[in-house]
Design goal:
With 224 residues, the protein is an alpha+beta fold. The protein is built from 11 helices and 4 strands. The protein has helices at 8-19, 23-28, 30-55, 63-66, 124-136, 138-145, 148-153, 169-175, 194-197, 202-212, 214-221; strands spanning 87-91, 103-108, 113-119, 186-192. Helix 1 crosses helix 3 (30-55) and helix 3 packs across helix 10 (202-212).
Length: 224
């Protein structure tokens, strides 16, 4: 059995980046970054992708399509520090650029650790399909969001920003009993301490969060 986990050095090095967030220091320590942070996270993400493919064979992405860059885009930011203090990846049929399909996101760093699932930023057409389907038959959607398995890993349930009003009067009538039709996002998230993440079965632990929202995932996939 291959043990897939992150070591304490993962967090220790990212703390060093926080204290020395400049290009000169990072260049001098790039080999340490690769060994302690990048390569372990890459192996972890590849293991998660492989397990996700067992659930959904149409997920055909690699690490580069899933992982977010460690280097910050500072062009329009007042904060000019060049590096992030975390590593993150989104696994779905469309990788990190997903706007249509069920996804699994995980982000680890000394400041914040969390695992999320659902659909964080649906595009216009997908959001329309979701709302139209809810309006036509809201109960299956409600059942997918309130399934007992969801609350085992995500005690707060589904979250997401909402519109105050919708363009169709019939949709607003549905919203009286099913306010989730107002959602612009449909995701669940659970935050953890670093010590919760330093476990030997981390890849399977991450995957369990995706399985917990299986009913929502299946409901969403039926729209496509």
């Amino acid at each position: 059995m291959i043990v897939m986990k992150l070591e304490p050095q993962f967090y220790q090095f990212l703390k060093q980046v926080a204290a020395n967030n400049n290009r000169e220091w990072f260049k001098a320590h790039k080999n340490e970054f690769d060994k302690m942070v990048f390569e372990p996270f890459k192996r972890l993400t590849e293991a998660v992708i492989a397990k996700m493919q067992q659930i959904d064979p149409q997920i055909q992405i690699d690490f580069k399509q899933a992982a977010f860059r460690f280097y910050r885009d500072t062009r329009f930011s007042a904060d000019k520090t060049p590096y992030k203090l975390w590593m993150g990846a989104a696994v779905s049929r469309d990788g990190r650029k997903n706007t249509r399909y069920p996804e699994l996101y995980f982000q680890f760093g000394p400041g914040e650790n969390f695992i999320a699932a659902g659909l964080y930023r649906p595009d216009k057409d997908t959001l329309y399909k979701i709302r139209k389907t809810i309006a036509q038959n809201p109960q299956p959607f409600k059942e997918s969001m309130t399934d007992s398995d969801v609350y085992k890993y995500f005690p707060e349930g589904f979250q997401g920003e909402r519109n105050k009003r919708l363009p169709h009067k019939a949709w607003m009538q549905v919203a009286q009993n099913y306010p989730c039709i107002l959602n612009k996002q449909f995701f669940v998230v659970k935050y953890y301490r670093p010590e919760d993440i330093l476990r030997p079965d981390l890849d399977e632990f991450i995957i369990a969060h995706y399985r917990a929202v299986k009913k929502f995932n299946n409901w969403l996939l039926e729209l496509h």
